[in-house]
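Exercise 7. Predict the joint structure of the components listed below.
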Amino acid sequence: MDELIAKLKAQIIEELSLEDLSPEELEDDEPLFGEGLGLDSIDALSLVVVLDRDYGIQIEDPEQGKDILFSVKTIAEYITKNK
Amino acid sequence: MGLYINGACAISARETHFGDFPGDKGTDNGLWLKTTTPDFKQFIEAKSARRLSRIIKMGVVSSLLAMNEADAAMPDAIIAGTAYGCMSDTKKFLKAMIENDGKFLNPTPFIYSTHNTLSSQVALQLKCKGYNQTYSQNSVSFESALIDGQMLLTEEGFNTVLTGGIDEMTDNLYTITKRLGLWRRLGEGVQPGEGAAFFILESQQTPSSLARILDVATLHGAKTETEIENWIREIIRKHHLELNSLDLCLLGKNGDRTYDDVYHHLETGLLNNSVCAAYKHICGEYPTSSSFACWLAAKILKKQIIPNGLHQQRSASTPINNVLIYHQHRNREHGLILLQSC
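Solution:
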């Protein structure tokens, strides 16, 4: 899980152009949207693309998306469960 | 009612963004004149900047600096002219399409690849909800944007219009345009280029006014030298000026012998009594380079100094009251801007 979390952090930073952020600064449990990291709906779309492209995982139910993409940890857990 | 340039900023290869005349040497990457940009982080929050490509940052920052110079509040309209649009995001999007066989496309480069991203991102950064338009008319994109701004101010009662011309050069664009032979005919000293120049236009003169725009015009299609002369003559006449009252003419010469003859004909004929100078060897050749010429002319009129290195045949006498900018692209599009001191 730790390895996956580290990989996800690097991917999120790269994919979302969060150049001023280092993987160490991104907490595992930190909310990615809203009051947390402040990502927006375009970022959510980009994360959905990453999951599909790099992990072969599709989020079938859009209602689930909010919970799955809540933090790096929730994304890692979803990947682990569905891979 | 007049039309005044009350603030302006040009980001160019000659470090002009803080209002100084072009330096002696351009930032040249060996292939084209690349802009020397200010530190974008000083103007755009990191959170907002993360998705913005270099061209959008250049547009936003040159807009902010033009507004600062004019001490302008929120513009009523934002109008950009660009021929190439956002090339680096276009490349990212197309590359991802090819690499992933049209699947798994990140939406961001697509969203930011469209031409109208420029003026809309400037609006988002300024939180301007007014009129927003982007003109893409090849080498008269900037003039088209200016004409729209002129109409909004003179016919629609707008107070402040932010308008500009902007184009970027990228590795891919250079490779493609080189393959198309676009740069083969450039004369010595003229290189491909890029830049951003934005202006605050207002109908009222202020202490910061740089120049008054008397006219902006475009002409389309191949024209004979006589037709071009007549077109220019008519515009000068319309403003009750004499040809010899043009103190400086900035011409879009780029060394291409096939099409530079148009300029030579003007220099030795219609504009024989005026001081004619060039500008493309300073900013580089790109479709909206007349926006750089417009910035340069406005600064010349404000400072009443012609900087060194414009390749003029003789010195201009002062005061410098009227400056004509004329350029054409392969005798297919012709752009003209007439500025007056104020």
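Discussion. The helical segments of chain A are 2-15, 41-55, 62-68, 72-82.
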